[in-house]
Amino acid sequence: MTDQNDGPVLDTAFFRRWLAAMAAAVERAADRLTELDSAIGDADHGSNLQRGFRAVTTALEKDVPAAPGAVLTLAGRQLISTVGGASGPLYGTLLRRAGKALGDAAEVTPAELAEALRAGVAGVAQLGGAKTGDKTMLDALEPAAEALGTSFAAAAEAAERGALATVPLLARKGRASYLGERSIGHQDPGATSSALLITTLAATAEEAAR
Asked: Locate the DhaL domain: which residues (predicted)?
């Protein structure tokens, strides 16, 4: 893995590949995400994300955005319009805010992507009223956004650690919070899928840097 000073070119094609990789990863992980959600949620996280990222894939096949920011904005719109429950607005806000932060640049640097991801994460926190430690997707996203300033690999590791760290937590936001102490001992599905988003980003960057 190259460091942030010698990383891959982050152009429109890179962002399309990242989201395609995420769509494929969601297909593979859908059953596990639903299983996690069945313990502390509505048992639909996997199927909801499948529907959403299939819509993203279709939209990106029909439309070819001119810039990385436009790719994320389009993906965010699709997720908001097709994903049920809280996941659609939260994921949609993450990607739309990040896309807006990237602007119209044809290429962005890893540092600019890290800053944009932090903007997206801030939007998620504002929308959901949650913070790190509340057993939500932020437990994976916030440490990943900070670690992305170091490297893609560090961001992936931070996201995976954050998702695993939700197991002993008491849920304080979202559907899982209704369970009170019964939410303890279960990994948060939103944090798990968020870690998947970051690990596919890292994998896409590693492949591009070869």
From this structure: 13-203
pLDDT tens digit sequence for 40-64: 888 899 999 999 999 999 999 998 8
Domain assignments of the chain as residue spans, ordered by start: 10-209
CB 99 within 8 A of CB 113: no
Question: Which of these, 37, 112, 124, lies nearest to 80 by C-alpha position?
Answer: 124
Query: What kind of architecture, by CATH, is found in domain 10-209?
Result: Alpha Horseshoe (1.25)
Q: Give tens-digit pLDDT for 116-165.
A: 999 999 999 999 899 999 999 999 999 999 999 999 999 999 999 999 99
